[in-house]
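Chain A, query sequence.
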Amino acid sequence: MSVLIKSFSEFQSWLDTAATNPSTKTSFWKKLFGSVPNRPGFNRIETKALSAEFGKVIKGLEILLHAAEEMKFKATAGAESSDEVKGSVSGKLPYVGSELSTSQSDRTRSEVQSEYSSRKIEVLHRNIMNYQQLFVRLSALAGGPSYLLLDDLYHLRLEDQANVVDYFHRIAKGTNLWLKVGTIRHRSRWYVHGQPPLGMKLGDDADEVDLDVTLERYEVTKAFLLKVLGQFATEASVSLSDMMADGARDRLVLASGGVARDFLTIFSKSIQVARERLLGGKDARGPKVGVEDVNRAAGQQGAFKEEDFTRDTGTTEDRDRLQSVFRKIVDFCIEKNANCILVEKDLTTPETETINELVDLKYLHRAKLRVTVRDRGRVGRAFDAYMLDLSMYTGARARREFEIIKFWGSGSDDALRRAGLIYIDRQAA
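Chain A, predicted structure.
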């Protein structure tokens, strides 16, 4: 319900500003988009009427949302009669009458909340057609489709995600409203098979767009990231070759794990590290950003990764589970003095599922698919290689003789084909 309120509020805000602002209001348009529209604003009377309708719906939803707290309060206080609870709710919800009132006098807090939740869901389902009409009118007013971007789905409870996606999918059907849902793959549940099924099924109801480039296709990823950085350098009238040593580029790609945001952030920190090094008189490595500068910057970035980890994980139990598996992987890598592990392909265990989550959280990175090892007992078996995030073993955490395995370029297969790097296989599982 909170997501629905926020979504409707954003559409109302757009109707009150961008929909009617003329193209001559250049300061408004250039601030948001850097250009001005080539078509006139929408009909002001119709736009105002639709905005008011969105406002009416938002107000009703807010009343419905906050009524839950009053019901819980009444239930906790121990209402003497059903009329006391009934009056507190139905009196605030004239548009649904007494649909949300309770009928028993002696309820516990959890019982009242449970009944409230089920009645609330009934109200939401009965209003789907009303919400659809809002977007049909919006499409007619705009002369084209509307778009709703729902980001960070994984912040919702896992058991709620498919229900939320399903509800917005039902609203969007036949209304010329397009949905884009952003999330983390292995911490999300956008579809649940059942009678009826819930959510959106990839390939049938929605297409998948993978936004991340990865280290599996190292040369492609490197070319893409350097192209992005090169565009910034061109705009700033500087040359990357004058700023970075050759080895620093590969190390920067590794440090980012293929994530463009992290690539740019660590590059910026690397420049700061190099400047501090030169100001401190430690200029033996020269004025360019070098491998050690990137290593130190990656180590500094590790603190921010920990903040993201805390924010992006759910309960304390969930966080402890992820940290426990990750600690075991770090200890394994330290024992082997190498930054990569091998996990047998197509193996499904609770620990391999957790490894997939750690990849999504950028603590591990997929390095290579289908690696075979030089071991007679494992002939014909394939493994996937994962690289420990660079921030875990550089900067303040650097270890002597810790090998960074070169899993790209010529000879990369041989570098990974060691039985000693196997972290999980069918025998261990």
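The chain has 15 helices and eight strands. The radius of gyration is 28 Å.
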